[in-house]
Amino acid sequence: MSQTLQDQNKTLVIEAFDLLFNKRDYQAAERYWSPNYIQHSAHIESGREGLFKLVKGIPATLKYEAGTIVAEGDFVIVHGRFSGFGAPVNWIAADILRIQHGVLVEHWDVIQDEATEEQSKSGKPMFGATFPKYE
What is this structure's pTM? Predict the structure, then answer.
């Protein structure tokens, strides 16, 4: 049974994020990001080079975990957690990506600091089933 375009796009985003953020295989990751990549994030310089430069400047302890992922047409939204990047708290992000011809061509994000159990008014974690443990 063949995958739908939306399933292919979701797989592409998960593979791209894992290669770049977790494995830091920049050469392999290049094939997932267009050389003309458009960046809308306030945290990242423009283009593919800006993204790769950001990741290269973050500690090797950086970890990305994907959670819920949805796709519609050329767009994928993935809800994930960035940890180990040198900030006092993790980031929970909704990354919105536009895909064209099998590569990531455009990106937007919404980022929040991850709340602890004591900070959560809902009593529910922002990501996954457990709260983060900060020291």
Answer: 0.94
